[in-house]
Amino acid sequence: MKNKHIKLIIIIYLVALTVSTLFYYIIPKNNFVKGQSLKEVEEVKKRGRIIAENIDLLPSKKSDPNYDIQSYEFKYEDKNLEIVKETVRAQIFIGRKNTNDNKIEVYSCKAPTFFHGVEYSDKIKEPKIEMINSILNIKDEKQKYSEYVYVEFPKDFTTTQFYGKETYNSYSGFGGMGCSMVYVKIPKDLVILNDEKFIYIK
Amino acid sequence: MSLMKSNLLPIVKKQYLFKLQGCSKFFLVMIIMQIVGMIFSVCNIGSMSCTSNETLKLSLYGNTTIQILIFTIACGMGSAINLNLKEAKSVDFTFVSNRISSNLSSIAILVTYALFGAVTFPLSACFIRIAKYLLIGGSNIIERNFYISPGELICSGGATFLYILLFSSAVYFAVVLVERSKAFIIALLALIVLLPRTELFNDIIIFYGSEHSFFMFMVKVLVTSILLFMASIIISNNVEVRK
Known about the structure:
Chain A is an alpha/beta fold.
């Protein structure tokens, strides 16, 4: 190949790279998948740990915007309660109130789940909680199988050597990916008929 | 022998321009290698991680530019070998020159390659980002690290230049040693095989790779490269003409 052809190729290559770089700096920045910063992920992890270690805090955190807590209240005047658990994603905790107020309170909290700094908790449905014929049903919501593919551009070492590197691990909150914690607060003397599947809080 | 006293710099410049013409194909090789690296990157040939449960699967592809960088550095090293080949060296004797001017012009060529790599590598990182954006759209791209600030771009270019220079100077020195005596081939091969198993190898990597101050990294690389080039000039200065 002649030198003048090589020169032309070099010029075309440099121009193509320069134009693509200019274009790269002007593309809209609002339609990307938002990733959390390492600090934000750590904050969420910390909040998840607090809940996992103190499940009885759920009622007090109900109005806290940092926690995604669903609450339910059912009037219940029977002496016994049957709970049907048809869930693989939720752990059920039972706590007793100090009084017999004929109310069953249920709090459900979804584990914050991150995959390489991207939160996808909203893609997992919480268990469905309902009282049908005096039976408390806690079931996994039917969810269609879905697959998400993301692309990330890790910085190479010529940048990370001087600017530092943030390493993101997957975090699936308490109990694994997509798990929830359900806290059932029952009146003082209510008897749970099928109590073998639950964790009792003293 | 010429009776005129010649000035070194004009001769080096002349030799440099002449060699640049002759070695321009190496720029082409670097371009091809970078394009291959870009294709690898855009086609997701790199890291991939995934997590799933019964209802959800998440996959993440890491579009790294490391292949482009490795290919660019390899091209710099290849040109260091090429400049010391007999055919390339014979060009020097078409000029009124000496070993010093020949080495200096070769070093200038290597610096030019390094500069070319330093300019094209960071821009190619932007190119693969924009190519991926146009191919799959922004809704599947994680925003974090997608944008490279101009400062990071300049830093990446500077570091690329220094890494190419470091590796090229090491290879240039090794080739000069081999030229001096073929016995060095065995010594160098032994070094390539044994060095990665020693503590010294880790120390070398830490010395350059763990330097977080760009200025200190620049000083370390420049001092090392200058020493290696000087050693190469001194060693090759004693070699007979046309050898």
